[in-house]
TrEMBL record:
Membrane-traversing stretches: 20-37, 43-61, 68-87, 120-140, 240-257
Any Gene Ontology biological process: cobalt ion transport
Subcellular location per the Swiss-Prot or TrEMBL entry: Cell membrane
Coiled-coil positions: none
Protein name, entry field: Cobalt ABC transporter permease
Keyword check for Cell membrane: yes
InterPro entries with a match to the protein in the record: ABC/ECF_trnsptr_transmembrane, Cobalt_transport_CbiQ, ECF_CbiQ
A single Gene Ontology CC term: ATP-binding cassette (ABC) transporter complex
UniProt superkingdom: Bacteria
Bilayer topology annotation: Multi-pass membrane protein
Keywords (A to Z) from UniProt: Cell membrane, Membrane, Transmembrane, Transmembrane helix
Statement: the UniProt record of this protein carries the keyword Cell membrane: yes
Organism: Lysinibacillus sphaericus CBAM5
């Protein structure tokens, strides 16, 4: 999944667009959604960003739907914890949709909880679409290039790049070790599987530590600063006008319903 995300970040139809434009567009809509906290605006943001992802960047709809399911479990558990409330059976319950009493406790779903869960659902949906637009259309190198242009601390930017790079190293090492364990029947029983997993984790920790030390030595030998190649992109006035039109529409729409 991670490798495919990186592939689309380089090969999508919006890869030629300047990364600053894509970051301002996605992060601007993300901040707008979080600040306004309005369900209609969040839903509009979701449809706008999804349209740019599917029809603009040409990301397959099936793959985009799978990505939306990834945070679904965490969102579902959060909504359940908000919807269900527990109170002593002797307490007077607030306005609620249904209740169930067991022993001395009452489990109920309050109307205020439903409104809160509904608002959270739409806000999270809009926010996720903004982040997916950014990571599916912009590579990490381009994102870090913009962060450097914004004069963020170089150490922070390099940590982002190195952490992202080590994700792929981690997956590659894990696949090799896992394949070697399967070739030696390391997963043929539950106890053997548990032993193999413990050995896998230990081997990964040792290898990551060694690779990070080697990378640190290489960087120190080059003066302690990493230099990255970046392909120059050109600003497009039409993109800026389009972003301004979308932002203006959302501001007017949000002011109308506030």
């Amino acid at each position: 999944m991670m490798l495919l995300i990186d592939k689309y970040a380089y090969l999508n139809k919006l890869a030629y667009v300047h990364p600053l434009e894509k970051m301002i567009f996605s992060l601007g809509l993300l901040l707008f959604t979080l600040i306004m906290r309005e369900e209609r605006l969040s839903l509009i943001t979701f449809f706008v960003m999804s349209a740019f992802i599917i029809w603009g960047a040409k990301i397959p709809l099936k793959y985009y739907a799978k990505l939306l399911l990834l945070p679904g479990f965490f969102l579902f558990t959060s909504l359940i914890s908000i919807l269900i409330s527990i109170a002593p059976a002797t307490h007077v319950l607030p306005a609620h949709m249904g209740s169930f009493t067991y022993m001395s406790w009452t489990i109920f779903i309050g109307r205020a909880s439903i409104a809160t869960a509904q608002q959270l659902f739409f806000i999270v949906l809009g926010s996720i679409s903004c982040l997916y637009f950014l990571i599916l259309t912009t590579s990490v190198q381009e994102i870090c290039y913009v962060l450097r242009q914004w004069r963020l601390p170089p150490l922070l930017v390099e940590l982002v790049e190195l952490t992202y790079r080590f994700i792929f190293i981690f997956f590659e090492s894990m696949q090799k070790i896992h394949l070697a364990q399967q070739a030696r029947l390391g997963h043929h029983s539950p106890m053997q599987w548990l032993r193999s997993m413990s050995m896998l984790i230990t081997a990964l920790f040792i290898e990551m530590f060694q690779r990070s030390r080697e990378l640190n030595n290489a960087m120190q030998a080059r003066g302690g600063e990493t230099v990255y190649w970046h392909e120059t992109a050109v600003y497009n006035k039409k993109n800026w006008l389009g972003m301004m039109a979308i932002f203006l529409f959302l501001i007017v729409y949000g002011g109308y319903f506030s």
